[in-house]
Amino acid sequence: MTPDDSHDQADDERVTRGTSDIAQSRSTADVSGEAPGGPAFAADQSSGLFVGPPEAPDRYELLGEGIPGGEGIIWKARYQGELTSPLPLAIKLLKRPPEARADWPSAHDQQRWRDQAVLLRHLKLDHVVRLDEVFVGAPPHPATGTTTESPTESMAYLVMEWVEGPTLHASLAASPARPDTIRRRLNYVAQAGEALADLASMTRSGGNPSLHRDVKPGNCIVHAKRGLVLIDVSTLRLVDDGYDFVGWHTPAYTSPEVLAAPHLPRSVAADVYSLGALAFFCLTGQDPPVADTPGAFARIERELEAAATAAGAGDVRRLTTHILAAMDHDASRRPSDLRSWSGDLLKAVAPAGADPAIGDAHGAPPAGWPRPPGRRRRLSVAIAAGSLAVAVGGVYLSDLLTGASGGGGQGQTAAPAAAGSTGPPPTLTTPGRTTGDAAKAGGTISSPAEGAGVKYCSYFSGTASLPPGTTLILAKQNLVNGDPNKYVELVFGYEKPSELATWRGAQYFGGENEGGVGQNYRIDLLAVDLEGARRFHDTQMSIEDVQDLVKSGSVLASVKVRRVASASVNQCPGPS
Q1: Cα separation values, 349 from 196, 307, 322, 345, Å
Q2: Are 453 and 563 in contact (CB under 8 A)?
Q3: What's residue 243's pLDDT?
Q4: What is the pLDDT of residue 463?
Q5: Cα dist from 367 to 225, 371, 375, 465, whole Å
Q6: What is the reported pLDDT for 353?
Q7: How many CA atoms lie within 13 A of 395 on its CB side?
Q8: Which of 201-239 are b and which e, b meaning 16 or more Cβ less than 10 Å from the residue's Cβ?
Q9: pLDDT tens track for 194-210
Q10: How far apart are the first and last CA of the chain?
């Protein structure tokens, strides 16, 4: 890989982060099929320097001269140990951040890095670099032999897998897309979107959604088999992480809200903006204008449309509008489902009526079409006993899957959340797979109103007309964190469908510390088979079985709501 210094000027007052920091060497073959770029880097020659933790200070041999960046210096390295042949790795020495405390890296800093390493190993993502080890040790030094002495000066190091290949910046800079490369380029963007969706997924991450926070061409490696790989995971943080006293960012790929307040916690929408900016680069070969400069959005639109036209996009306006949606100045209007956005990005490249078939990791065959985002891995989340609370999208699964009448089984009394207006929302199209009786049902959600604020728990109500043998459930989906699953509550009195002409139920949206505040949700009213609802109530269904229950039903109505702060964690007791 090569550094991206030309686009992050250190003397720019907006810049708090300089370059692409995980600088890995280029492979001899440019797997992207584009013109090669970037300086050669003799990464396999020993520098004569070693690093390691105090108990093994010579554990890693550094190769080449190392390439400096805004956060530190990156080397290709090798680990020998007792192995027959050394293994290639990437070592990043982190700089002391500006305004860092005297104890940097603190125990909290080191624990955060270790947490990130465990999380990435858990996720096993093809399109995100693996973080192997974090340690504090002496500065790079000649071989010293094993010692247990503490270094006089401590440095922080991250050890990552070595990903061979060029960066997107080295391959594409100053080179706009052509008709024979546009599909390949946007396929890389789709793979980045898949990676960000996996990082932000509450389910995939085991309840630990995170953000990359520095998506840009210099942090994207094109690997011969894996396709695009996001690197520089030193910027990775949990979605609900706190104040960032450093606030590193790359201006051209940074959303307006982060430019305005780089030290505040960030939402998934910030990574979505960076993904849109990456798409701009892949189409134009140029960094997009910084979002807070005058006329930036109009210039972005104009240049996107010109590049898409020159590259022969199947539907120029559709592609332009699609990328602009990810770069919307208003974070709340950016796409929330990155998997769908990535798939639709590829569809916009296809000629009218064409179907982009799945090709290799670089979008080559068949027929030159790019590969859409990889298939979703089958979830194997087992829901434990009713007392187990697993936070998913700010909602406890135990709340969703227990309770005699769909009221959450909390057994506490509190006033219901304020209802909104009574205007019914539009009824959605019925899914393709429904039970025969459920497909004949009808219903509305009369409150809360579309766009209403909801607390930890809020009541929903409406009307319904149900055929015999069917009943009602409420299914909730988080529209922000990328989780594709829906989580179910039974309406009150679900076991007596004849009494549900006017119905009432409750939904839970997470406590103050579960990351739910400010997130958007869609609530569907569904008619499902009564026996299926009873099984849901009486058994500890797996997440897959819950999704099958949802898919078997018929969507009668839907409403979008937004989680707002509340003074306390309220409950929604069912009818007495």
Answers
A1: 21, 12, 11, 7
A2: yes
A3: 78
A4: 93
A5: 19, 11, 20, 49
A6: 52
A7: 31
A8: bbbbbebbbbbbbbbbbbbbbbbeebbbbbbbbbbbbbb
A9: 999 999 999 899 999 99
A10: 65
